[in-house]
Amino acid sequence: MRASLIQLSVDASESAEERRHRAASLVRDRAGDDLVVLPELWTAGAWSYDGWDREAESVDGPTAVALSAAARQAGAWLHAGSIVERDADGTLYNTALLFDRNGELRGRYRKIHRYGFDTGEATLMGGGDDVVTVPTDFGVVGLAICYDLRFPELFRGLIDAGAELIVIPAAWPAARLMHWRLLTRTRALEEQVFLLACCAAGTHSGIHQAGHSVVVDPWGTVLAEAGPDQETLTADLDMSEVTRIRTELPVLHDRVLGITAPAAR
Length: 265
Known about the structure:
- It comes from Streptomyces antibioticus.
- By secondary structure, this protein is an alpha/beta fold.
- It is built from 7 helices and 14 strands.
- The strands form 3 sheets. A 6-stranded mixed beta sheet has the order 5-4-3-2-1-14. Strands 6-7-8-9-12-13 form a 6-stranded mixed beta sheet, with helices on one face.
């Protein structure tokens, strides 16, 4: 199967609506691909906290409408990155959307691990609590977002739910590019999955984005990696490699579950 990661540039030079139009056009250009992926919070800006309330939308709002149509026109599965979702009760969430080839919404994941400590997501958004996988015609796709990369428990939950390929939209800061490179490779190798991590480019709210979107195979080998600026990264994946590698090196069978720390004395 063929996958493309659209490393979209996100900055203050255009409105969210202009960026929707640009992103949808780039998705339509990927006709013939099986899966297309966009970055995290590319409409509102992942670091533009003061604009989140203004740009928040429902899962059937303007971003979903535009990207659903683009997925249908491209005939591809589309991971539309994530949006600032406003729930019916007013709570904001960082929510990933996955559309099928007909433009139907097939998966929604609310980011579980919220970045910011005492600022940003940690204080302005609610956290999800569901591990989400979606069956597709090329394999089972697991969903995670950016900061989730730092928490291996989620990824073990995704493979327990059948994930063979994990998609991670991100707005990872360039200052921690080394961490991005290390963690994306580690999660693919650790879970023996294909990992597609699509990071934003550009600068917004003073935070320079890392770019360097990457496709990693279940052996931890980098199949393709982008540079720092906007580009579309494309790679061909042989999904049978997941089964082959898990059979050749069956480390997942040796997991010991239920390990707990001893009680403090």
